[in-house]
Design a protein that fits this description.
Elements (H helix, E strand, L loop, with lengths): L1 H20 L3 E16 L4 E21 L2 E19 L3 E3 L12 E3 L3 E19 L7 E23 L15 E2 L7 E16 L2 E12 L9 E3 L5 E3 L4 E13 L1
Length: about 250
């Protein structure tokens, strides 16, 4: 938490200096609840659950025209991910994580729950509209938005009444799965909302944003059994998708 506080303080001071030096630049902070889920291109590894999380960030906007801006920022996405349900007769998942032997071979319908934290660097184009410069209420859209994500933490657990052998319930919770998640994420997104200038050089922003990964969230270290006997490598592409209720203040 001390590192996060230091980063926010640094960008707050940097943004304050930029605003005073150049009116075409705006600096903002956001604290936004998020809802994410996972999907794969393998019908036997189905996304069945979702995560509630939060996104914290700092954003800078450079207006090269009155209502057109380039935007970039630095943020933290906490508890991103969701559930993947095994549809194969057997599955060996998370082999590089510290699991007990009975949990290595999961039966059909076992659910793998991912909880992933990213450091995010978004950038994109923002278009703003409204009826006149003196109108305090405006609307905006951000399209496209590209986000680079860097893995900071990944934990998981195994869910379902029939997924565990007796006595191993505790071993299926809070598993460190960093080696099962790719360290780099690339996402695209879009968003829109409203802005309300409630004071001089202070604007409240409320909007909704959608984000979806281009890249595979998982490292595909596991194996699956299609016929109950022979195991083959699991190579499904799993992506995280999410909605964020963006709440922020620009200065």
């Amino acid at each position: 938490m001390k590192k996060i506080a230091f980063v926010f303080t640094f960008f707050l001071l940097l943004g304050a200096g930029a605003v005073s030096a150049q009116k075409t630049f705006r600096f903002g902070l956001q604290v936004s609840p998020s809802w994410s889920w996972m999907r794969t291109d393998d019908k036997k590894l189905e996304g069945t659950g979702s995560n509630w999380g939060v996104k914290l960030g700092v954003v800078g906007e450079y207006y090269f025209a009155p209502n057109y801006a380039f935007m970039a920022g630095l943020g933290f996405g906490f508890n991103q991910g969701g559930n993947l349900q095994n549809g194969y007769s057997k599955g060996e998942f998370w082999p590089k994580s510290d699991l007990s032997v009975p949990l290595r071979e999961l039966p059909m319908d076992a659910k793998l729950h991912y909880r992933i934290n990213y450091v995010e660097v978004p950038f994109g184009l923002k278009l703003r509209g409204g009826s006149g410069e003196d109108n305090p209420l405006k609307y905006y859209i951000e399209v496209p938005t590209i986000t680079l994500g860097f893995l900071s933490k990944a934990t998981g657990d195994i869910r379902g009444d029939n997924n565990l052998t007796p006595g191993n319930e505790d071993e299926a919770n809070d598993i460190a799965i960093r080696k099962e998640v790719n360290g780099l994420s690339l996402s695209w997104g879009l968003g829109g909302g409203i802005e309300y200038e409630f004071a001089t050089n202070a604007t409240l922003v409320v909007g909704l944003a959608y984000q979806q990964q281009f890249t595979d969230a998982t490292t595909d270290n596991g194996r699956v059994s299609r016929d109950g006997v022979e195991f083959v490598d699991e190579d499904a592409k799993a992506t995280i998708r999410g909605l964020t209720l963006r709440v922020g203040i620009f200065f």
